[in-house]
Amino acid sequence: MQTLTVPGLTMPKLGLGTFRLTGEACTLAVLGALARGYRHIDTAKMYGNEAEVGAALAQTAVPRSAIHVTTKIWPDSYAPDAMRRSVETSLEALQIDEIDLLLLHWPTPEMNLPQALETLMTLRDRGLARAIGVSNFSVALLRRTVEEIGAPIVCNQIEYHALLGRPAILEYAAAHGLAVTAYCPLARGRLSDYPELQALARKHNATPEQIGLKWLLDQPGVAAIPKAGRGTSQQANLDAQALTLDDEDRAVIAALPKDVRLVNPGWPMEWD
Ligand SMILES: NC(=O)c1ccc[n+]([C@@H]2O[C@H](COP(=O)([O-])OP(=O)(O)OC[C@H]3O[C@@H](n4cnc5c(N)ncnc54)[C@H](OP(=O)(O)O)[C@@H]3O)[C@@H](O)[C@H]2O)c1
Question: What's the CATH code of the domain at 36?
Fold first, then answer.
């Protein structure tokens, strides 16, 4: 399993997304993934499955120290007391002492960013999280966070896949030592709609999803967290790591549409 390292963070490049995995199916999916070799699990307070992820972390034979756990704080809990309670609840549900990477889930037009980041830093300093970061932040928000407020964030988790280009954020992250975690890395099933990706899949004896995933994992500073409830999907995503894409393949992927956005929180957003 390849890892990604930026100042303040080392994590496996391939993780398991868990959005919409709930109940026992979630626990079984996380247990299965850990048994197959996954060592990076992505959850969030908003997914309502931290207890089920926590049950898997408690049951697995894989030691806690070998597993990277990311969770996120929902914007309704960005005020200091609410954030502390949210993180304490997450830790309890996950049955762990420390979150490996703790993110602000979404920016909102009304959030008090300096205060939210200050609180996040305090929680990190108290030992509740090993590293802190953000999600869905534009370059302008990253600039405020890093250059004006000076918050020691290590990661921006964003929607990024073969059908959505994020060049400005990737450039900013690379220049400032931030990891980018790609969510919806498989474009939620859309990749197989494109004959170009089907052709690449045939060429590599793989699937369009594996091609799209390997394209992300090949990029320095980028991690990817496909959600996979089925064991066959989990294994296919692990196997994608062994593919070798060439410049010709990358040119085909570069020529695909880059404006397919799948996630929108429903409030005004500056995306890039
Ligand atoms: N920070 C944020 O705001 C944010 C927003 C959205 C998502 N996320 C995170 O990113 C994760 C991934 O995003 P996502 O779940 O929205 O979309 P995704 O990972 O692009 O797509 C998930 C879908 O792809 C299927 N799949 C997985 N591996 C496959 C394979 N090898 N071949 C064919 N199909 C495959 C899954 O099926 P099965 O499950 O049936 O196997 C599932 O239906 C989420 O789970 C969550 O952890 C974060």
Answer: 3.20.20.100
Residue nearest to atom 31 of ligand 1 (CA): 233
Contact 191, 163 (CB under 8 A): yes
Q: Where are the beta strands (DSSP E) in 77-137?
A: 99-104, 129-135
Residue 208 covered by a domain:
no
- Model confidence pLDDT, tens digit, residues 45-77: 999 999 999 999 999 999 999 999 999 999 999
Supply the pTM of this predicted model.
0.99
Residue 228 alpha carbon to ligand 1 centre in Å: 6
Q: Which domain holds residue 22?
A: 10-188+218-245
* Tokens standing for residue 233: 């999907």
Ligand 1 pocket check for 188: Cβ under 6 Å: yes
Ligand 1 centroid to 149 CA: how many Å? 33
223 lies in a domain?
yes
